[in-house]
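hey m, so remember when u said the tokens were messed up on ur end? i reran from scratch. heres the input so u can diff it against urs
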Amino acid sequence: MRIFIRHYVEMVIAMFAGMFAWGQLQPLFMPPMPGGAGAGAQMGDTAVRMGQHGNAMASHGMAMGAGTPIWTSIGNISMMELSMVIPMVLWMKFRGHSWRHGAEMSAAMVVPTIPIYAIGLAWPEVFGGTLSIWSHGAMLLGMLALMVVQRDMYMGHGHSAHDHAPDARVTVAH
């Protein structure tokens, strides 16, 4: 069980590293939030900067509150997800997993967020400024679910990640 937990924690740490890196790079790729010159716009800009540099999950949710178009929120969160997937897959590869396992874990991470985004698009008031928090929770649960389904691999029972070749076939000579 210790191996299972360690693997999960290592992937989450890699994801947070990617999320932090995206927070540092985000100003280069994402346009500034629209708004006037009033105090409300300044507070919104501060919240966006906090989302880029601070506690990404909590303050990022603030940055996507009232006044932020839902498409901007979803685009920003999607880029954050990509920034989390890349280091997670690279870490898995470093730990001996195949690219296929990295792709499976990426899908387990991203697919559960799709209904969250769909609800956020259809009814933005449902999540308000917490869309990011809900999507991150869905990611973590999706990853955990895949690990439970494939627990033999993630607990290291009698084989390593190297032993899982996609489509490995045995031929017997007669």
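this time it looks ok to me. Residues 36-65, 158-172 have pLDDT under 50 and may be disordered. if urs says something different then somethings off w ur setup not the seq
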